[in-house]
Every structure is written in structure tokens, then in C-alpha cells.
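Human: If only I could read C-alpha cells as easily as an amino acid sequence. Take your time, and here it is.
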Amino acid sequence: MTMFFLFASFSVLILLNIPVAAAMGLATMIGIEAEGLGVSNFANLIYSSIDKSVLLAIPFFILAGVLMDYAGISSRLIRFAQVCVGHIHGGMAVVAVLTACFFAAISGSSPATVAALGGILIPAMTASGYNQNMAASLVAASGGIGIIIPPSIAFVIFAMLSDISVGNLFICGIVPGLVMGLAYIIAAYWSIRNDKNIVRQKRASFPEVMRAFKDAIWGLLTPVIILGGIYGGVFTPTEAAGVAVMYGLFVGLFIYREIKFRDLWRLFVDSAVTSAIVMFLLSCAGVFGWLLTVSGVAEELSIALMSTSSNQYVILLLINVLFLIAGCFIEANAAYCIFLPILLPILHNMDYNIYAFGVFMVSSFAVGMITPPVGPNLYVACNIMKISMRDICSRVFPFVLAGMSAVILFTYVPQISLFLPRLLGLRV
């Protein structure tokens, strides 16, 4: 009965266009009352679901991403990538993906990556003869790499929910993030294979490359400082988020001088609003996941899924399909809280590595960022270029296909995710 009240009320609220976080919270209150647990406990449950020190990394990484964007780091990374590979055929498409990979190692957020890069990259690609809708689709897809390559807010949430090491999960995402980027480059080349309008940029001279490198060095150092500090044992992932904020402030205020002291209040407020939205979503989703567990719903659903087949590959395929469909409708951070209580027992029964599953799950919802009707990255790209969702969706399919191909590869070849951490001697 609890399952019926929980999912029926959640579905109705979503159909009524209630925000996912609010729908989850209201559905959970109905489920708690149906279970006889007392709705008065809801406030305490909300607080306890986010009363975890590791979640302090989320507002800091959000603020760091905003600071890095306003500091002008994104434009300098784009310029450096342009002088390196902009002269080859399809070079601007490669620039888009490479810059997204670099910025992913700074922001930790997928929509933030699209917002930071799209305003520069999409017009630049259009000026070079690329179809505007294709350019917007590529940037939206590449932004998904922002939650795969560390530091990643999604990995922080997954590690917290599954009780594994954030730092180890971070390093598991490096190789898959690069593989995902390669898949998008291949899809981009396929999309422009017959396009005669694309103009190659002039090959940059060596002094131009060196000037661009010198100008971008502070941005290139960011992932070295953050990840090097974590894996060198200098600071924890949560402390690394604070270090990233201080570094962004230093670069923006004193090196590039594109952030003024009068701008700080607006930057802090913008970051606080974004952080509040994420934390409210996590609090409601956390209680939702808790109710799934204590009511036995998660166990029932796990048993039902296991009963469909005893073949591990078939079950993994079903999970792939589940994530593909869910990614079209459910925000990624909420999805982790909903599905992990159901799927973790199944993974333990199959003896599937939880770190590899973290990469597989986060990558799946990274692709979900470009699947309509929700597709938050698509909306960001549409707002930047003032185009319709129909326009961008007309050219996004090759990138969805490329992303899902990479996800299937991560699913059935978990060594892709585990290779680097095991090479470094980490226990994963």
C-alpha cells in the first residue's frame, strides 16, 4: 500500500508540473502517513538526510565554478584549445569537447559547464560555418562531462549515499570522462561529414600558442591543485572544494582582475541560491529514499527486478534501460536518492563493483542531461542562443547515441573505470 501511495502521488504531482523536489517531499509525507510513521517526523528526517559533512563540498564547488567562470578562465581555456587544434577540419568541435573536459575538472556541475562555455563556443562555431543547432547540441552534450571528470558534485552525492570514498570515486571518473569526450568527438565528425560550409581556422604560430598557454596557465593549474591535493593527501575532497573557492577568488581578483570586489555579493548570492536548490532537492530525495528502505518497498522492487532473470548481463541491461527512461524525466541528483536504495542490494548480490557502478550511473544521467523533455543542458543551450527546444533536438540524437554507447561500454567493461585507481594502488 505504501508503494502505491508513494509512487501514485509522486507521478500525479509530476504530471501537474510541480517541481521534482517539492513533488518528492509531498509524496514522501503522504507515504510516511500511509506507513503510520507520523508526518511530524518529516522535518527531522529532512535535516538528518543532509546532516553530512561530505555535502559541504557541494556549495563550495558550486561557488568555485561560478568564480572560475566570472574570472575569465573559461574564455582563456577556449582560446588555448583553439590555437592548438582549431586549424584542423572539425577543429572547433574538438575545441568544444576538450574545453568541456578541462572545465569539468573545475566546476563539477553539468549545466554550469554549458553556461560557462556555451556563450563563447556556440557563436564561435556558428561563425566558423557550423550549423547552429548542431553546435548547441554538441556543447550541451559535452557539458555532461562536467559530472564525470572530477571534481564532481554527482560523485559526492553518490559516494555519500553508498558509503564509499569520494576521493577514490573521483579518480574512477577520469578515464570514463575522456572516453565520453572521444565518443562525442566521433559523433560530431559524423554530424559534419557532408557539411561544406565549415571554415578551418588559420594555423597558429608557435609564439601564439605559447601566449595562449601562458594566459590559460592559471586555469590549467586548477585541476592539478585540486586533484593533486586530494591524492597527495594534502586535503580531503571537502577541503579541496574550499581550496578551489580561494583559488578562484585569487585568480579572479588579483591575476586576471575580471572580478571586482563589488561583484562578490552578487556572485555569492547566485551561488547560495543554486546551492539551496540542490540541498533542498537532496533533503527531500533523501527522505524519499529512506522511506523506500524502511517500508520495504526498495527490497520488494529489488526482488522483483532480480526475479526477471538470473543473468547478470540481462539485469545490467534492464538497469541501463531504466536509467535511460528515468533520465528523460527525473533530475539526476534526485535519481540517485530514488534508485540507489533499490539497486544497491542487487549489485551486492551480483558482486558488481560499486565504484564502477557509480561511474556507470552518473554517466547514464549525464546523457540524461540532453534527453528531452527535461534535458537541463538543452534548456541552458537554448537560452544562450535563443533557439527552440525543437531546433536543438533536431541535431542532438547522434550525441545521445554516442553517450549511451559509452555508458554501455562502462557497464560491461568496468575495468575502464577501475584501471586508473588500481594502477595508483587505490582500493576500489
